[in-house]
Design a protein that fits this description.
With 142 residues, this protein is mainly beta. It has one domain (19-141). It contains 1 helix and 10 strands, in the order βββββββββαβ. The protein has one helix at 117-130; strands at 19-24, 29-30, 33-34, 43-48, 65-70, 77-79, 85-92, 101-108, 111-112, 132-135. The strands form 2 sheets. Strands 1, 4, 5, 6, 7, 8, 9 and 10 form an 8-stranded antiparallel beta sheet that branches. Strands 2-3 form a two-stranded antiparallel ribbon. A hairpin with a 2-residue loop joins strand 8 (101-108) and strand 9 (111-112). The N and C termini lie far apart (48 Å).
Amino acid sequence: MPEAPVLPVLDPEFEASERLFRRIHPVFYVEGSLSEGFIPFPAFSVNREKYSHPEDVLGESPHFGIASFRVMDIPERLEVDPIRAYEFGVEHVPETENYAHSEVRSYSDGVLAEPPKTVRKRFRDLLRRRITILRVPSEKAC
C-alpha cells in the first residue's frame, strides 16, 4: 500500500513586521514603478521572510526583479459602501518545493472573492505606495 503524502505543517502566525517577497516580471515594471497587473485578484503569491530570502522568489527566472512589503502594509479592510466590505490578509500556503509560499487574499463575508474594480484600484494604490523594490528586473528577461 503506498504511503500517504506528507503535507507540510502550516504556520498561520505572521508578525506585522514580517516582510513578504514577490518577483517582478518585467512586463509589470513600467517607467520605474509597478503596474496594476503586478497585484492580481482574488489572490497572489508571495514568499515569507521567516522561511526564505528575497532571491528565493526568482526560481528559474534570475532576470526578474524582487519586490518587498510588510504584512502590516496590506490594507485590512476596504468598504464598497456602508453595507459591503472586503477584507485582505496573508495566509501560509506551503508548496512541496517552497515552504515559504503564501498568498495575499481578498475576502467578502469570509469567502475568497474578487472585489469590484474600485476596491481593487484602492487596494493596489495603497499597497504599491508601501512596496520596496529590492531588485529591478533586467532587460534580459524581456
